[in-house]
């Protein structure tokens, strides 16, 4: 029985919407789809990028992600040695255009819902909440993912892609606020942003929303379900604590392991009879 089945109803009017990230939050445990593709895209230009380096800027729009990687000293040094000059805007475009077809081709392989996601979305809708979403994925990639996820029970009311808005993406508030407008929400303080990355949490805070971070299902842990299951209790706690610390540092009001735990977190936030705090550092009980 899902944990949400044991919870009382959410107090009426406390929240109006929950806005989710995609990879590592709703689908794709470990946020694997974009990570490996960045490694392969850079390799096509003779540049070695590790998986850990690839994960560093995760949550940004993919073009900004590439730009940030090229500014990393170890990668910038490689590029300078290869080309004789620092990476230019044209170089960013070239890597991006190499990345895009690879990501479009692979995103469907990582469209399976994270365990508990379908039940959690159903519970939120039972409470009368609207479901928004946004992603660092470009629109071409997100448009491939959306119908595949919908066929498996993940169908938000709205979805914003990382290149949809002239104002830009994370960590700015723009994609989250675009959901607010599309869903007709009158008060951002009645919205919860859920994300597995620091830029995604910063996005929610910059939009004036409550924020819940996901420690184990996404980019911060970067592990598959099998890899998580193989960890000893102490090792799992270490992974959880490291991920949670980064999400709290970004401004999360609460951190849980995955979307399966979100209903308890929502109930905990609903019980807080205070103005929105700067950040609680709480775990849902």
Automatic annotation (TrEMBL):
Gene Ontology MF term list: magnesium ion binding; phosphoglycolate phosphatase activity; phosphonoacetaldehyde hydrolase activity
GO biological process: DNA repair; organic phosphonate catabolic process
Cofactor note: Binds 1 Mg(2+) ion per subunit.
Pfam families to which the protein is assigned, alphabetical: Hydrolase
Cofactor: Mg(2+)
Domain of life from the UniProt record: Bacteria
UniProt keyword annotations, A-Z: Hydrolase, Magnesium, Metal-binding, Schiff base
Enzyme superclass (EC): hydrolase
Annotated Gene3D superfamilies: HAD superfamily/HAD-like, Putative phosphatase, domain 2
Binding site for Mg(2+): 21, 23, 196
One GO location term (cellular component): cytosol
Active site residues according to the UniProt entry: 21, 62
Known EC number: 3.11.1.1
The reaction(s) this protein catalyses: phosphonoacetaldehyde + H2O = acetaldehyde + phosphate + H(+)
Biological role stated in the UniProt entry: Involved in phosphonate degradation.
Similarity comment: family membership: Belongs to the HAD-like hydrolase superfamily. PhnX family.
Quaternary context: Homodimer.
Protein name: Phosphonoacetaldehyde hydrolase
Organism of derivation: Pigmentiphaga litoralis
Gene name as annotated: phnX
């Amino acid at each position: 029985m899902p944990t949400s089945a044991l919870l009382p109803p959410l107090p009426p009017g406390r929240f109006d919407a929950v806005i989710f990230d995609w990879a590592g939050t709703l689908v794709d445990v470990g946020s694997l789809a974009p990570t490996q593709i960045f490694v392969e895209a850079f390799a096509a230009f003779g540049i070695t990028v590790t998986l850990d380096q690839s994960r560093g800027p995760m949550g940004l729009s993919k073009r900004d992600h590439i730009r940030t990687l090229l500014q990393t000293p170890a990668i910038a040094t490689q590029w300078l040695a290869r080309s004789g000059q620092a990476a230019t805007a044209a170089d960013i475009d070239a890597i991006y255009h190499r990345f895009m077809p690879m990501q479009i081709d692979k995103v469907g392989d990582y469209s399976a819902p994270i365990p508990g996601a379908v039940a959690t979305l159903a519970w939120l809708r039972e409470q009368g909440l609207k479901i928004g979403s946004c992603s660092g994925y470009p629109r071409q990639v997100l448009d491939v993912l959306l119908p595949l996820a919908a066929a498996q029970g993940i169908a938000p009311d709205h979805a914003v892609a990382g290149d949809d808005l002239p104002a830009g993406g994370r960590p700015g508030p723009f994609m989250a606020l675009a959901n607010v407008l599309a869903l007709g929400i009158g008060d951002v303080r009645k919205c919860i942003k859920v994300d597995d990355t620091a830029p995604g949490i910063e996005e929610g805070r910059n939009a004036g929303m409550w924020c819940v971070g996901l420690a184990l299902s996404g980019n911060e842990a970067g592990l598959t379900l099998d890899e998580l299951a193989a960890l000893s209790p102490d090792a799992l706690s270490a992974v959880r604590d490291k991920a949670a610390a980064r999400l709290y540092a970004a401004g999360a009001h609460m951190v849980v392991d995955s979307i399966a735990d979100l209903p308890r977190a929502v109930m905990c936030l609903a019980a807080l009879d205070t103005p929105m705090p700067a950040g609680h550092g709480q775990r849902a009980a």
